[in-house]
Amino acid sequence: MVEKIKKTEAEWQAQLTPEQYQIARLKGTERAFSGRYADSKTPGVYECVCCGTPLFDSNHKFDSGSGWPSYTRPLDEAHVATEVDGSHGMVRTEVMCAACDSHLGHVFNDGPEPTGLRYCINSASLKLKERS
Ligand code: FE
Questions:
Q1: Dist. CA 37 → ligand 1 center (Å)
Q2: Is residue 20 part of a domain?
Q3: How far is CA 110 from CA 5, 22, 44, in A?
Q4: Among residues 48, 51, 97, 120, which one is catalytic?
Q5: Best label site of 16, 26, 76, 100, fewest CB within 10 Å?
Q6: Does the predicted TM-score (pTM) go above 0.70?
Q7: What is the pLDDT averaged over residues 96-124?
Q8: Contact, 108 vs 90, CB < 8 A?
């Protein structure tokens, strides 16, 4: 379990850039290939841009060709939450930060082995802590 982090909309807005706020707090989506981490191969841990919870590891990142950072699994299952998302005429599984409920992206069943999962995540919801 992670400790829940609650802030007001005004507090999130003050802390985040307008793009980060739109995507992470209002469930937006960055344009494909526009995010800073789409093609990144830099080793490290991808943390929640809102609260710093470690969410994904570069070791599980793969080239999906989708234009968004893609991972086969989260760093720790307990650090992410999922919910059915029926918006935009599709049924998808939304992925959120378990600590602060920020919107991260969606998870699909068309990923590579060993999990067969593709966590398709917005760069704007992440902050890479580089490993040396
Ligand atoms: Fe968070």
A1: 17
A2: yes
A3: 32, 27, 24
A4: 120
A5: 26
A6: yes
A7: 98
A8: no
| Cα 96 to middle of ligand 1, angstroms | 8
Domain extent for 105 = 9-130
Is residue 3 a part of any domain in this protein?
A: no
Ligand 1 centroid vs 75 CA: distance in angstroms? 13
**Alpha helices for the chain (secondary structure H):** 9-15, 18-20
The CATH number of the domain holding residue 97 is 2.170.150.20
Coil, strand or helix at 108 = strand
Q: What is the pLDDT of residue 1?
A: 76
2 in a domain, yes or no? no
Whether 132 has a pLDDT exceeding 90, the answer reads no
Tell me, in angstroms, the distance from the centre of ligand 1 to residue 1's CA.
13
| 1 falls within a domain | no
Per the structure, how many domains does the chain have?
Answer: 1
Per-residue confidence band for 11, with pLDDT thresholds at 50, 70 and 90: very high
Q: For residue 89, which amino acid is it? A: G
